[in-house]
Amino acid sequence: MKKLVAEAMKDGALGVSTSLQYVPARFARTDEIVELAKVAHQYGGIYITHQRSEANAIDDSMKEVFEIARRANIPAEIWHFKTAYQKNWGRMPEMLRRIETARQQGLKISADVYPYVAGSTSLSACLPPWAIEGGTDRMVARLKDPATRARLKQEITTDSKDWENIYLGSGGPSGILIASVVNSDLDSSQGKRLSQVATEQNKDPLDALFDFIIADHGQTGAIFFMMKESDMQAALKSPFVSICTDNGARATDGPLAGSKSHPRGWGTYPRILGRYVRDQHLLTLELAIHKMTGLPAGNLSLTNRGLIREGYFADITIFDPRTVIDRATFEEPNQYPVGINFVIVNGQIEVDNGQRTPALAGRVLRGPGYRR
Question: Which of 70, 223, 314, 324 has the most CB atoms around its CB within 10 Å?
Fold first, then answer.
């Protein structure tokens, strides 16, 4: 594994990333991650993590992030930082203070956040880790077994620190929205809450959940309403927190156009500029732009990017601060924002007065350890 990390860093990887809330990464030990992060550090890389817990076990999870950063002597960033589930609402200022203390002690800890109170992941994330272990086929087989279903219902309706119970943490079926499906027979359920799906099918909500996972062979994307606006805003204002989307790019045309997703993939940056800068004055325009550009570029050691400066690549978004705003909603996410008229990538105009051009000026971004 260390050899693979070294090869990847020389190929241009930015660092080592983990997604410790989910199977199979959840089974990785701290010592194992430290050894891999040490290799990334040798090539100037960063450790980026979806930490082991964003909810009930967040205290221990934060300690693990700090331990890995300290032992591997590597900068660490926490993906889409949050204090999730209602019982943890209001704890974000405390978590930010812990990061600030770690930074004062010499650790290079940063985080990023998206401006929404709902996260998104696979619908199968509602299941405990043991139910997912071994791959999709084994998971589906378990869900078809009546005895296993009974056990799952007991565990999912019981609060625990042993795993991230996103179903319970989202308030149950009414806090879970079906975002995207692979099985076209399920298209009509996109944009509906799990509670609505269960009512329409006249099923117990957990039976509806299990059956949906089976029908889409574990490929369903879902949106989970599990955060508090004031916590998100506290993170957004923090000087060491940048802005992310945590979402792949989408388009209104092409083979994936009918598949819905989280609105963050369509509206994150205009939402910041319109709602939180212009309308609510939560951030200054300059600070918001820095959190979108120079701050993340610096955290990732990307050279000649993130600033408008002589000799840098000309990556420039031109927007109207009076009108820029997102239009994507949770129910109808596939909508472009307004107020962004021109986009320049590596000095070439990619969007001209709101219309795409034939230019394809993007380049692969490579980390500091890249060896030609």
Answer: 223
